[in-house]
Amino acid sequence: MSKTLVFDSSSLISLALNNLLWILKPLKEIYGGQFIIPDSVKHELVDVPFRTQRFKLEAMVIAKLIEDGVLTRADPIPFTDLSVLCNSVFSVREKSLTLVQEGELEALAVCLAYHADALVVDERTTRLFVEKPSLLQQLLQRKMRNDVIAHKELLRQLTDTLSEVHVFRSVELVCVAFEQGFFDSYVGQEYSTKDLLEALLWGLRLRGCSITTGEIMTLLHHLG
């Protein structure tokens, strides 16, 4: 199986809202693999917004990335079983919590089917499902102000199912682009390299990407 990154809607939205979709083409060339999106992501980011005025331009940009082969549409992958599993793990008052939506579920299914290097997703819930489901339980309890039950057998099945999935966010892609010098032309007498990195990181945080202030400070320390 070739090198593959699978993109969910949230990561592409973060890049679009920060006018950073252009970095995908040179990143793909450096990576030397495929950037794949499920049909549900294409529908959410191209078909639906193209019929509106607010996000029509972003839809056209993403459509052009697909047309140019920067983003490749995945073969249809069934995800019903994964949907049942993900949305049955946690419950409140004996009612299962539906936490992962169609786009994220299909992206996860594609990631598994293609043995992808990573799933690129900015949405925190999906990321925590993969990386730290116990932390997700704590956050849900805090948000809902109620006991959230984790069904141990289903949680074990979920952990086993997603064990080979790794997660990137748009911020990791932008940091690679930063290190590769994609943004060097922005730096001049008025703005330092650290100013640029800080602007990129906070732009992503304020417009879509789940990243903490602590993570931003760490990245500024290591890369700025």
Give short descriptive properties of this protein.
224 residues; alpha/beta; Rossmann fold; five-stranded parallel beta sheet; three-stranded antiparallel beta sheet; globular
Please outline the helices and strands.
Blueprint lengths: L3 E4 L1 H9 L6 H8 L2 E4 L1 H12 L5 H12 L4 E2 L6 H7 L3 E3 L2 E2 L5 H12 L4 E3 L3 H8 L1 H12 L4 E2 L1 H10 L5 E2 L1 H10 L13 H14 L6 H11 L1
Parallel strand pairs: 1-2, 1-6, 2-3, 6-8
Antiparallel strand pairs: 4-5, 4-7
Helix pairs in contact: 3-4, 3-6, 7-8, 10-11
Description:
- Strand 4 (90-92) and strand 5 form a beta hairpin.
- A five-stranded parallel β-sheet has the order 3-2-1-6-8.
- The model has no long low-confidence stretch (mean pLDDT 92).
- It folds into two domains: 4-168, Rossmann fold; 185-223, no CATH class.
- It contains twelve helices and eight strands.
- With 224 residues, it is of the alpha/beta class.
Short overview:
The chain is α/β, with parallel strands linked by helices and 224 residues long. Helix content is 56%, strand content 10%.
Biggest sheet record = 5 strands, parallel
Helix content: 55-70%
* CATH architecture descriptor text of the largest domain: 3-Layer(aba) Sandwich
Arrangement of strands in the largest sheet: 3-2-1-6-8
Tell me the radius of gyration: 18 Å
CATH topology of the largest domain: Rossmann fold
How many β-strand stretches? 8
